[in-house]
Design a protein that fits this description.
The complex is a heterodimer of chains A (371) and B (279).
Chain A lengths: L1 E5 L11 H15 L3 E6 L8 E4 L2 E5 L7 H13 L5 E6 L14 E6 L6 H5 L4 H18 L5 E3 L2 H8 L8 E3 L22 E5 L8 H11 L7 E5 L5 H12 L6 E3 L5 H10 L2 E4 L8 H8 L4 E4 L4 H4 L6 E4 L3 H13 L1 H15 L4 H14 L1
Parallel strand pairs in A: 1-2, 1-5, 2-4, 5-6, 6-7, 7-8, 9-10, 9-12, 10-11, 12-13, 13-14
Antiparallel strand pairs in A: 3-4
Helix pairs in contact in A: 1-13, 6-11, 9-12
Chain B lengths: L7 E7 L3 H12 L6 E7 L6 H6 L5 E3 L4 H11 L4 E6 L2 E3 L3 H10 L6 E3 L2 E6 L1 H11 L12 E3 H6 L11 H10 L5 E2 L4 E7 L2 H21 L12 H9 L2 H6 L1 H23 L9
Parallel strand pairs in B: 1-2, 1-4, 2-3, 6-9, 7-10
Antiparallel strand pairs in B: 4-8, 5-10, 6-8
Helix pairs in contact in B: 5-11, 8-11
Classes of the chains: A alpha/beta (371), B alpha/beta (279).
Chain lengths: 371, 279
């Protein structure tokens, strides 16, 4: 089969995240099975207009995130339409509407998540209002009119999309995979001496990193030797606010910021910390939650879309209301009850072993072939 | 006998409360209930608030930027099974804490208690305020819980630190979702001091500017019928005409003051922002 992905970022993009990893892993397996895969994507600085990555053809059109979709659709209509068996549109805020012009191909919509509340955290007024109240609902409803089946990675996203005209039977949730190899045994892990919380990921307003520091400060009232390690890119405006907050914290000595870390350091941190906190406004899936679980570290997450899918509350971690005090309470609870901690940690690790991209690919391939 | 009795942590938040704090803390340490721990969470006072607090307890902290953050911090630092959230201009009748503990000890269903409030102070406007508050006693949608079991308070997330007004109703709502809120008979007396109309109105503008956060969060349709909204309040007052006619001058003053508060509130709301001061 010849398969085309519309996706605004490819996995070499500097801002590539969990969603791009999913695309990469699925596409690599498609290529491995003898299919031809093409990405139609934005041209980020330093990237060439056309190249082959891991056997995947990458065509990069347009340099701006928002106008790129117009150029890409135009390119598709004139040069690519009718040449593919399958067209998959990855919807990430600015849609292409490529599925409406399938040209005889099977079409699919791939949604990691809707932006919704993220508009208010990542854009300023009045763009935030326009996006939240007008642009996104309108575009989503328009896409819902296409007959293309929907692929997502979490029930939360499916549920969210149901508000915009996507009937549940159209949706398919495929297993989220992780690329980190789970530990073969939890016995081999040596945790840090003091109870340590890990905060991982780039510092962006929608990640609410400061909530984690505040929760740490509150939990510290009960767990006096508690430590916090943060790792991630702090280059943006919000990143500066986070660093400033750390500097002024009365517990600054117990907080360490490691900057952007290498893959091996990331695994080391996930292994050695006792728990991870994730406080995003919304996610498609809490990928780092599953990654940390694979290294024997459970997570406490806010009860929001995507994160609540990646933790089974009180079984593989804790899902708490989105308030710093509730997060602090979760930290205290998880740490003070040692047998509960061990139970949760083991269950999280066991679950992570089933989250493989081979499983995702099986679900995904099934869908492509079925149609 | 204190053996086996649960510890209660009383959290008092302060900011330049030199005038009222002594009486407030005294009313707490004179509670009939023991064991009690007293925590004072100050927000950068420039007067001798902290010194006064230290004569009553060694648990004096400093925290900002707002009252909700101070309260939540106090609860996080507390050790009690129960917590009482008290403002520095309040004076508790000696039985308040004992009554609250008795109420919650008898049930595992409920997690919050409303303590009725009464105002006192000097001058005409304080009298008006006193009359106004007297209408609220026993009215569920206006009174909010102040006494909680600590575990539930923490697990629902405490006061929403992004809200500056409406945060007490918001928390009561989340606590009530876990079980009915109870009430006790003993009162808290609210010291209005020498109440100045102008100062009250300025405060209203400030709170109203932030009220949108509450309204947006709770997806409230009409701004006029929320707990802070005017229509329900007037309805409440006029439901008891005898009470109004008993002291017509104070009643008129109260209605005038409320009308001014709502008008100034409206101005504050219109010019307020959708986002809270913390964002």
């Amino acid at each position: 089969m010849k398969i085309l992905w519309f996706t605004w970022k490819d996995y070499t993009h500097p801002q590539a995240g969990g969603a791009e990893v999913v695309l990469k892993e699925l596409s690599k397996r498609l290529v491995g099975d003898g299919h031809a895969v093409t990405f139609l994507t934005v041209r980020h600085p330093g990237a060439s207009a056309h190249e082959w990555l891991d056997g995947i053809e990458v065509i990069r059109i347009g340099r701006n995130r928002y106008t790129h979709s117009l150029y890409a659709l135009n390119y598709y209509i004139w040069h690519l339409r009718g040449k593919f068996d399958v067209v998959i549109e990855v919807v990430n805020t600015a849609p292409y509407f490529g599925v409406l012009l399938g040209g005889g191909a099977k079409t699919f919509l791939f949604y990691h998540q809707l932006a919704r509340e993220v508009w208010f955290h990542e854009t300023k007024s009045p763009i935030a209002e326009a996006g939240y109240y007008a642009i996104e609902p309108f575009a989503t409803r328009l896409l819902a009119r296409s007959r293309a089946p929907l692929i997502t990675i979490s029930d939360s996203t499916l549920h969210d999309l149901a508000h915009y005209g996507f009937r549940a039977e159209r949706g398919h949730v495929i297993t989220q995979g992780i690329t980190i190899e789970p530990l073969s045994s939890l016995a081999e892990v040596k945790k840090l001496q003091d109870p340590t919380i890990l905060s991982f990921g780039s510092f962006r307003a929608m990640k609410r990193t400061i909530d984690q520091i505040k929760a740490f400060e509150l939990a510290k009232q009960q767990i006096h030797n508690l430590k916090l390690i943060l790792a991630g890119d702090a280059s943006g405006e919000y990143g500066k606010r986070v660093l400033n907050y750390i500097d002024h914290s009365e517990f600054a000595d117990d907080i360490s910021y490691e900057g952007k870390v290498t893959h091996s350091r990331k695994i080391e941190l996930m292994r050695e910390s006792h728990m991870m906190c994730v406080t995003s406004v919304k996610e498609g899936w809490g990928l780092i939650v599953s990654e940390a679980a694979s290294q024997g570290t459970p997570a406490i997450v806010y009860d929001v879309d995507g994160l609540r899918d990646s933790v089974h509350d009180h079984e593989t971690g804790l899902v708490v209301p989105p308030y710093t005090l509730a997060l602090a309470n979760g930290i205290i609870h998880l740490w003070n009850d040692r047998s509960f901690y061990q139970k949760v940690r083991t269950a999280a690790w066991e679950w992570s072993k089933r989250l493989t991209f081979d499983n995702s690919y099986q679900d995904f391939k099934q869908l492509l072939l079925e149609r | 006998m204190t053996m086996g009795r649960p510890l209660v942590s009383v959290i008092v938040t302060t900011r330049n409360n030199h005038e009222t704090l002594g009486a407030c803390l005294r009313s707490i340490i004179e509670q009939t209930y023991v064991p009690l721990e007293l925590l004072v969470v100050d927000n950068n006072s420039t007067d001798d608030t902290k010194e006064i607090a230290l004569t009553y307890t060694s648990h004096v902290y400093n925290r900002g930027p707002e009252r909700s953050a101070q309260r939540n911090f106090g609860v996080a630092a507390a050790r009690g099974k129960y917590v009482a959230i008290i403002d520095s201009d309040m004076e508790l009748e000696p039985e308040v804490i004992a009554a609250c503990v008795a109420a919650l000890s008898n049930t595992s269903q409920s997690h919050g208690v409303i303590i009725p409030e009464e105002s006192f102070g000097q001058g005409f406007w304080a009298q008006c305020k006193r009359l106004e508050r007297s209408f609220y006693v026993g009215v569920d949608w206006i009174e909010a819980a102040r006494f909680f079991d600590r575990e539930t308070y923490m697990s629902v997330g405490g006061y929403d630190e992004k809200m500056v007004s409406g945060e007490d109703w918001d928390l009561s709502g989340r606590i009530a979702a876990r079980g009915p809120i109870l009430r006790v008979r003993p009162f808290i007396h609210h010291n209005e001091g020498q109440l100045k109309l102008w100062r009250t109105l300025k405060k209203k503008v400030y709170y109203a500017r932030q009220a949108r956060v509450y309204l947006a969060k709770n997806n409230v349709g009409s701004k006029l019928t929320t707990p802070a909204g005017p229509l329900q309040r007037y309805r409440l007052f006029f439901k008891q005409p005898r009470k109004l006619l008993r002291d017509p001058l104070t009643a008129l003053g109260m209605l005038f003051m409320k009308t001014c508060e709502f008008s100034f509130g409206a101005v504050g709301y219109i010019f307020g922002s959708r986002r809270s001061i913390h964002e």
